[in-house]
Design a protein that fits this description.
It is a single chain. The longest helix has 31 residues. Helix 5 runs antiparallel to helix 8 and helix 7 crosses helix 11. The relative contact order is 0.10. The two termini are 44 Å apart. With 336 residues, this protein is mainly alpha-helical. The structure holds 3-hydroxybutanoyl-coenzyme A (3HC). The site of 3-hydroxybutanoyl-coenzyme A (3HC) has 28 residues, from helix 3, helix 7 and helix 10.
Length: 336
């Protein structure tokens, strides 16, 4: 309809511009109305370019976080203290790999390729969660990651099950179920050490909590007033709850869990605020956060080097799979 109307304006390209704008405006208005109605957007639906780009950015970063997140814990599979802990850790690390794959697949529905996303990761152009640039120094770190890091991840990810982009929301439903198991196994592992362990083991748990607490609090991203993407992502229903609100929910939950564990959270300013009905907490070291994101955390280089090596070492598998697919296609053609 708009094309016909604009045809009357003339044939040169400049004249046709407003037609596209009007059509664009109409499509955007329809899209906004669908978002306001709480509808889910599917891959085949029209969407604004910026919505698509925002999703590719967030989903690919999320996928990379899952994949890089396998490294700090994977490091402990061969050193798990018992067969039971080893089996649990193996399952958890495999789950993280699976989450990465669902998420890459969700991002691919937006028209980006897995190769492009991985190239961005390997060349340092793509971000992944700051948390995975910290080292796992003792066995208690594995429990602390489960309790705090997976705990923070669930807090952030449960609202994404209602993300307006349906393929991402669907992937998150399964991911969150598995993350919940991850959080519990970490908590249970720490609880066992705190209740039945030696004094040295209890001290090891406290030390792990001391090191993982602040990086976990930072995981939720910059404060709302310094978060460049939040306003638009909230408007589009990609993010449902803001960085600061999620951080507060996490702190409130963790304080109670720390009491059960019998550990101290390393923040002297942490205290209940009756008026706010939330815990106040100390100042976050945002310089540390931005520094880690800029590539200068304790393990950034090691993590990327490990991913690049895995990619290079896996070249023969990709080549073999391609050769097999080509052969099969050829056989299929010959049989047809
Ligand atoms: N680590 C690295 N970068 C971060 C970050 C973090 N913890 N928090 C924020 N950032 C980056 C953002 O990506 C953004 O950079 P960009 O514009 O170049 O992409 C910049 O800092 C500003 O932050 P914003 O708040 O404006 O960014 P977002 O609106 O995208 O919010 C987010 C950040 C809350 C992490 C959001 O992207 C999100 O919810 N992502 C999905 C969940 C996710 O990726 N979680 C990562 C952990 S997954 C995990 O932990 C695995 C589990 O198995 C443990």
């Amino acid at each position: 309809m708009y094309t016909q109307a604009m045809d009357t304006l003339g044939k040169d390209a400049e004249d046709r511009k407003p037609v596209r704008s009007a059509e664009q405006a109409m499509l955007e208005a329809r899209f906004d109305a669908r978002i306001d109605d709480g509808a889910f957007i599917e891959a085949k639906d029209w969407m604004p370019d910026h919505y698509r780009k925002t999703l590719v950015r967030q989903i690919s970063q999320h996928a990379h976080s899952e994949i890089v997140g396998m490294l700090p814990e994977g490091n402990w599979i061969s050193r798990a203290p018992t067969l039971k802990r080893k089996a649990i850790l193996l399952a958890k690390v495999q789950d993280e790999g699976g989450h990465g794959l669902y998420l890459y697949a969700a991002a691919e529905t937006l028209g980006t390729s897995r190769d492009e996303m991985l190239y961005a990761l390997h060349t340092g152009k793509a971000k992944y969660s700051s948390i995975f640039n910290y080292p796992t120094l003792t066995w208690a770190d594995v429990g602390a990651i489960g309790w705090l890091v997976d705990g923070a991840a669930i807090m952030n990810q449960v609202p994404i099950c209602r993300c307006s982009y349906a393929p991402y929301a669907r992937a998150m439903v399964r991911i969150c179920r598995e993350e919940s198991f991850h959080q519990r196994q970490g908590f249970e592992s720490l609880l066992t050490m705190m209740q039945h362990g030696t004094e040295a083991q209890k001290a090891m748990v406290q030390d792990a909590v001391d090191r993982w607490w602040w990086p976990s609090v930072m995981m939720f991203g910059p404060p709302d007033d310094q978060s460049p993407n939040s306003a638009q992502s909230m408007r589009w229903g990609i993010k449902r709850i803001s960085n600061d609100e999620l951080r507060q929910k996490f702190v409130d939950a963790a304080v109670e869990q720390a009491k059960v564990l019998g550990v101290t959270l390393p923040d002297p300013d942490l205290k209940w605020n009756e008026e706010r009905q939330h815990h106040d907490f100390g100042a976050i070291d945002w310089d540390e956060f931005w520094n880690v994101i800029a590539g200068n955390g304790p393990c950034n280089r090691e993590r990327i080097a490990a991913r690049v090596k895995a990619w290079d070492d896996g070249a023969w598998v990709r080549e073999a799979a391609l050769a097999h697919a080509e052969k099969q296609q050829q056989r299929f053609k010959e049989a047809a």
